[in-house]
Write a structure and sequence with these properties.
- With 265 residues, this protein is of the alpha/beta class.
- The chain has a single domain, classed as Spore Coat Polysaccharide Biosynthesis Protein SpsA, Chain A (Alpha-Beta Complex).
- Strands 2, 4, 5, 6, 7, 8, 9, 10 and 11 form a nine-stranded mixed beta sheet that branches. A two-stranded parallel ribbon has the order 1-3.
- α10 packs antiparallel against α11.
- The protein is globular and about 55 Å long.
- It starts with a strand and ends in a 5-residue tail after the last helix.
């Protein structure tokens, strides 16, 4: 394993007794470039402690009610490094994720966030690229151009038809952005609004068009339950209204609601 002086941390957000946590941790431990790894939780339990002890990973416990915004900020703030990836316990990472992170951010020295392409995991197998994944990959294409990756118009543009950046694929430049970057008051689309806010800042969006992140889709996922009880829909309408007049948002949502069904398949 290559040892790098690049200052980076994977901060894993762990909740309860997830059957996927160890698979996530294992993919981070096996990175081709050695990096830092911590586990953060607001639901401490023996399951999390046992995995942390097995891999020799420090655990940080946040007091208070679980919630994306507070839990993500806690994990992000606990990372003592220039760059931070908020790793979700259900997901996995390509062994060369950190390798490509270092390469791409060295090419774009003013990068404030890094992200990659991704593939879904369904039924415990890395699946074929679904319709949503293909559309979002197309939307991200302008970020392959170094000049466009620095332009506010294009950074916002890739977000205008949906949350095209897969949240667990993102790594944030904490050295530039500072602490507690998740300020959105939305229930589910915190990541989408955060990327919108970052798009307004100076600095590049560093993108690698390779599937370096594997996003798990399963019935127990918060995103799935949010679709069922329409919380996701309300957040999506709010975000589309930040880009478009309400009448255009209504048209977009006709097609977007159909896309929700993909997660139920």
């Amino acid at each position: 394993m290559i040892i790098s002086e690049f200052s980076h941390t994977f901060a894993v957000c762990a909740y309860g007794e997830s059957e996927y946590l160890e698979e996530c941790v294992d993919s981070l431990v096996r990175q081709s470039v050695k990096t830092n790894l911590i586990i953060c939780t607001s639901t401490p339990c023996e399951h999390i402690s046992n995995i942390a002890e097995k891999y020799g990973i420090p655990v940080y416990v946040r007091e208070g009610k679980s919630g994306f915004k507070d839990d993500w900020n806690f994990a992000y703030n606990k990372a003592d490094s220039d760059w931070v990836t908020i790793a979700h316990q259900d997901d996995c990472y390509h062994r060369d994720y950190v390798k490509y992170l270092i390469k791409r951010t060295s090419e774009l020295e003013d990068a404030i966030v890094f992200f990659s392409d991704y593939l879904p995991i369904k039924n415990n197998r890395v699946g074929k690229r679904d319709v949503n994944s293909r559309i979002r990959r197309f939307l991200r294409m302008p970020m392959k151009n170094d000049r466009l990756a620095r332009k506010c118009f294009w950074k916002k543009g890739i977000l205008s038809l949906g949350a095209s950046i897969c949240c667990p694929s993102a790594t944030y430049n904490k050295a530039v952005l500072g602490n507690s970057i998740f300020t959105s008051n939305l229930k589910l689309a915190i990541d989408w609004e955060t990327f919108y806010q970052l798009a307004e800042k100076d600095g590049a969006f560093a993108y690698v068009d390779k599937p370096l992140t594997f996003y798990r889709v399963h019935d127990g996922a918060t995103s799935m339950t949010a679709i069922v009880d329409h919380r996701r829909e309300l957040d999506d309408i709010y975000m589309f209204n930040r880009f478009w007049p309400e009448w255009i948002t209504k048209i977009i949502m006709v097609f977007y609601k159909k896309a929700y069904n993909i997660y139920r398949e």
